[in-house]
Amino acid sequence: MENPFLYIVPREDEKIVNMQETLESLRKSINLVLKQGMIVALIGDYGSGKTLLIKELKKHLTSKKIELIEVKIGQDIINIVYSLKEKRKEIIAIIDQVDLLAGMDKEYLKNFLNTVRAKSMEGITFVFTMNKHTLKDLSELDKLFGNMVRKIEIPSISYKDAKKLITSRLNEVRTTKIDSLEPFDEEEIKSIWEKSHGNPRLILLLCSSMYDKKMKFK
After folding, report:
1. 80 lies in some domain
2. Which of 8, 27, 175, 205 is the most exposed place for a label (fewest CB within 10 A)?
């Protein structure tokens, strides 16, 4: 039987409660400050669902006819941000995986943060994704940036939601959808959840490994 856990990123149709609550908080924050400018940092560890939330946010913003500008890490990011201009239409710039900037020269990072602050004060709203360590480093590098950032943290998923996620994946390879954790038992799932610290990607990764072992000896 095919391993349903090989794709270790939660899918858009897998409605995980902590992500829905975080997405709603993100939407509200942005709706309140359109045309005023703001810097929002979506904070979470690797595999916590930051990129999935950005995809959901983009759907929401597109439906509101807001101009979205995605700035990719690796592009001439300072000049791209500097060239952003406030128009009659609200502009939101999304920069995913800001952690990838960690290895850049400090002067470069200072120029980047200074440009972001300036554009935010002109009315551009920025949405970043990063982990808490990157935010701490950037805030120490530019204290004004740190003071301007609105943090939205992605909480770990609950044990209940972990079971829902696992059951959903198992049902993908079953002939009939049932509310069961088989071939796992409750104790094994609880151990996986505890080891992953509620990180969705780690939960799926650990399940993938255990599933292969169980199918091998079935």
Report:
1. yes
2. 175
pLDDT of residue 23: 79
Token digits for 184?
């796992």
Quick one: pLDDT band at residue 15, thresholds 50, 70, 90?
low
* Reported pTM: 0.81
pLDDT (mean) for 105-109: 92
CATH number for 106: 3.40.50.300
Check if the beta carbon of residue 78 is closer than 8 Å to that of residue 110: no
Cβ neighbours for 139, distance < 8 A, ≥ 6 positions apart: 145, 146, 149
Nearest to 91 by CA among 112, 117, 114, 64: 64
- The residues near 71 (Cβ < 8 Å, ≥ 6 apart) are 77, 80, 81, 93, 94, 95
R_g over Cα of the chain = 20
Burial 48-60 (b: 16+ CB within 10 A, else e): bbbebbbebbbee
The domain of 145 spans 17-153
